[in-house]
């Protein structure tokens, strides 16, 4: 009995990737963007990456571990975007950090929704907590420089404003320009007190 090329399964495909972990994360990210985190399976990620259905288990113990890796990379990308916004004048930084946060949500909507959604629990994954804390720390350090009053409350206030606007933009409920207008109206700092 012969098997045609179209009948071959990914089980017959060799493990020949220079950076399979990276390939799997990217394939997973694309699947999450198309179908949502609930639809992600390691078998489907393997198929999309062109490897055997067992290959993902060399890097991820479960589908949740892959979702964690995708979310952690999302936080690292968010942190990089926030750091890039720090090239502005100190009095403009909070506004620009807010814009970078909103822009990230728009450009990386599926990652943003995964990072802050209920599909994974940050408390169960220290590496995810570290990545999230590193992004939050950029905001916290800039709030400390640009506001007075209780720094924890000021940081949470700035984060809540940026995150609320970002969530509205990511979900298509608010145009980017309106979100930026809200941030511009907030002035150089997010207030005091």
Report on the structure:
By secondary structure, this protein is mainly α. It folds into 2 domains: 10-60, Homeodomain-like (Arc Repressor Mutant, subunit A, Orthogonal Bundle); 69-187, Tetracycline Repressor, domain 2 (Orthogonal Bundle). 63% of the residues lie in helices and 0% in strands. The protein contains 8 helices and no strands. The chain has helices spanning 20-35, 42-49, 63-85, 93-107, 109-116, 126-146, 151-170, 176-185. The N and C termini lie far apart (78 Å).
Summarize the structure.
By secondary structure, this protein is an all-alpha fold.
Secondary structure: elements and pairs:
Layout: H1 20-35, H2 42-49, H3 63-85, H4 93-107, H5 109-116, H6 126-146, H7 151-170, H8 176-185
Helix pairs in contact: 1-2, 1-3, 1-5, 3-4, 3-5, 3-6, 4-5, 4-7, 4-8, 6-7
